[in-house]
Amino acid sequence: MSPTPYLVLSVILFSIGAAGVLTRRNALVAFMCVELMLNAGNLAFVTFARMHGNLDGQMVAFFVMVVAAAEVVVGLAIIVTIFRTRRSASVDDASLLKL
Amino acid sequence: MNAPTLEYVELAPLITVFGAAVVGVLIEAFVPRRLRHLVQVALTLLALLAALVQIILLAGTELVGAVGAVAVDGPALFLQGTILVLAIISVGFFAERRLEGGGDAFAPAASSLPGSEEERVLVRQGMLQTEVYPLALFAVGGMMLFPAANDLLMLFIALEVMSLPLYLLCGMARRRRLLSQEAALKYFLLGAFSSAIFLFGMAFVYGYAGTLRFGEISEALTANLGQDGILLAGVGLMAVGLLFKVGAVPFHSWTPDVYQGAPTAITGFMAACTKLAAFGAMVRLFYVAFGGLRTDWQPMLWAVAIATMLVGAVVALTQTDIKRMLAYSSIAHAGFVLTALVAADSSATAAILFYLATYGIATLGAFAVVTLVRDSGGEATHLAKWAGLGKRSPLLAATFALFLLAFAGIPLTSGFVGKLSVFTAALDGGAAPLVIVGVIASAVAAFFYVRVIVLMFFSDPAPEGPTVAVPSLWTAVGITLGAAATLLLGVVPGPLLDLAQQASVFVR
Q1: Secondary structure (3-state) at B400
Q2: For residue A38, which residues of chain B lie inside 8 Å, CB to CB?
Q3: pTM of the predicted protein model
Q4: Is A74 on the interface with B (CB under 8 A)?
């Protein structure tokens, strides 16, 4: 098995996620893009684990899934509260804090 | 297959703090509402004190525990002890209830709409948000684990355990909730973004070395000297994640917004303790795991250190809000610490440890003073309102001036000794240009600190100016301790410097 295609895929997923966070204006979409980046990291870890023939990378992938779930809990709580007060989840509207 | 062994005695401080945090969550569920505040504060303080005692008893230990995942050594114990001291003082600030007439600095229910009928009822009933304390305990646990993490996975987990509660704590301010929620959103989105980048970097480092342990990564680096693109990309991406947490330029843009929007007690806690933990983790990662790659990461950190010092100092000049000004000053301080980190001299670790301790205590004190200057809308953070404060309340203004002088690095304050040791370490490591930039940035920074002092003591108070609230014992003791430590460490820095020196060897 050649690991290269999997690594290329993970880099592509990571780039899509990063580009999404930087360009999308909706907090929920930006957050989903962060999740995509975490999963790109998982894919890279699993690929490298296969390449090196040890299980460390696969173990990391499990921990990252749990961390991502915890992040969803915290993130959605924050986004929902701010949506309730502002009636909008756009990150452009949240602009009280400026220089 | 053998079950892994855990060194319970050496890991006891971490277990105490995390255990107490879990108990704190249970208290939320089972203890009657009117007792909760008392029980939570008592439990939090007891747990932190117990952990501090355990750290002191462990002093001098050197081992890698938890199957190679957690290091118990000088730098880790020094930073954990300092974080615990700062956290104990912070919990006092969280528990302060005299400033808001019976309430603390947090919204009675963070989920209620600001200004809604629901919230008014809760305020009238005198409800308090007690979930703050378990959240703070989780954050402290993560902060203690972060500088002790000795493998990549533990490093990532500690980063998240430290950050997630802080995102929530930022959004809980009683006054100006919109600002507070906005700060939480910004901190969360940017923090999650940076930890995803950090994770991807971790994957590349693992791909290169085939292991997660710092020690084995370092061996892998020396074994195959072929400089792999994968490795450099990994180190760079991991550095982004850590530089974000310490608030270094160009990853600093969240700092002023979050510092301004978060409840001030949280801002102080976050500014002091997060920086300690993140720098501790950064020093360990770069010295222990990536030490063999020094010539590759040094140029990158050179550029970051220079940019951080200059941007922090120059942009602070234009600020009109005291919390934003302190935020930019904290950015400049991150740059000063980076100068020693870049130099990677043998004395660098001790200098960084000492600097972080002195910076942490002064920062905590300065933000606590900010909570006391109030007008009808809550804290009066606009600089113009601080005019003439020295005439109205000389003691408070003098204390704040002391913290500012420590930030500026004036002799006889702890900041001077800290800056001196950091710059000396950088000089010994052959980073003279960095030191020159550092001195220039310090001079610029001194200008705006002195400007605030002049404003407080030599201008006339505004007629509608803010009043200085009389705090309860919690805040009074905290500020006094901070001021005393700042002065004492400036006059007799010897003992703490020696301690930092003894604690500066990483276990490998």
Answers
A1: helix
A2: 196, 199
A3: 0.95
A4: yes
